[in-house]
User: Fold Glucose-6-phosphate 1-dehydrogenase from Demequina activiva.
Amino acid sequence: MNNPLRDPRDRRLPRIAGSCGLVMFGVTGDLARKKLMPAVYDLANRGLLPPAFALTGFARRDWEREDFEEVVYESVKKHARTPFREETWKQLAEGIRFVQGTFDDPDAFQRLKETVEELDERRGTGGNHAFYLSIPPSAFPQVLTQLRDSGLSDAHDGAWRRVVIEKPFGHDLESANELDAVVSEVFPPDSVFRIDHYLGKETVQNLLALRFANQLFEPIWNSQFIDHVQITMAEDIGIGSRAGYYDGIGQARDVIQNHLLQLFALTAMEEPATFDADDLRDEKEKVLRATKLPADLDANTARGQYSAGWRGGERVGGFLDEDGIDLESITETYAAIRLDVPNRRWAGTPFYLRAGKRLGRRVTEIALVFKKAPSPYFQEIDGVEVGNNALVIRVQPDEGVTLKFGSKVPGTTMEVRDVTMDFAYGNAFTESSPEAYERLILDVLLGDPPLFPRHEEVALSWRLLDPITAHWAESGRPEEYRSGTWGPPSADAMLAKDGRVWRRP
Assistant:
């Protein structure tokens, strides 16, 4: 198909998927409607899906194929990032199917199998199908068992079958291992794709290029030059309508165990032998295995729960005021932890990770804060302390990199002030970054797994987090912090004891 969006010089997503189908469970949820369906359309619009592609929805709704097609259409019109093109939509719509049923109904999965076989015959999907579980984790075992019992997970004659699992991958190490055991009974390891959408973000991938493609940075990416590292994920919103999921889970399990520990591993790991999946995963797992928790968890972790305050000039309630939240809930909405990596590269350089809701603004960043210049003259000038240099990788919302350093203020005296050099994706490149789910869905269809963690990586993350959440469970209530601020006082105290302060993004 002649696609004007498919620039032959475009190297962002240069590969095109072969004949295949995507079966989506949970098509009535927000993730499917706002992210997954628009991402499928955008891939088709960029010319990265084959004419033989098929999209099948599975849900309990009493829909016909035309009803689901209308849902996909509305989702695409409202949330797609590329322009709507009738030619693209017509080709995509021809491959749309819908199967009505519940997860506990074997007959529904038999109908799904018949639909998949019909697509192989009439649409030319070639027996290649991925099953996307955009459903609550509690339903994973049931759906996986049905896929096995119905024969849908079986690949034949050189075709492939794959499964996509959304985080959370369990709620602790034990449940993660139990989930992996169920998945492993149905799909081989190389057919399991655990999705963390942060790994599809352009800036996260650019972290590897920033580190290893630039002689400017790699020689100073160590404890000899770096004083400490701060990894922040701040949200200015509350839990919204997620009370049923969030209460009892909390910010550490919801964000730190996956998103922030992934950013941590990519920041701290050694250069892989190649950037193939196994080599990249090996290095991430090595650094997670080497990471240690401080002995004193009271002093080196912090947790909080937002109270009433202000957001964007509007008065907002606290966590305990949210619909569906138990007034006695001790679920944290803010979590901060210190990690240490006592290896040759990082010994003596602490990593501080924090994540919270209803904070001052929405931002995710990795900040490498450098040691002070050794010159005694530039430690303090006229009673004013000279600031630390910092390299800040901005993951969202304004993707890019900022370098903060000291510069002399024009004039007759030696006055030094912090200034910044700024790189922004939107300014440096004419093309926009693909949405994270575009990249990840395409990688699933191509069978390319570098951005997807193996179970060992998930297990290592839980081994780090489980002692912290167990300690908190025995430590009373989280500390309150007012909505619109930057977290509880204990988080500031956590850095202050080390002679450091949190960056203000």
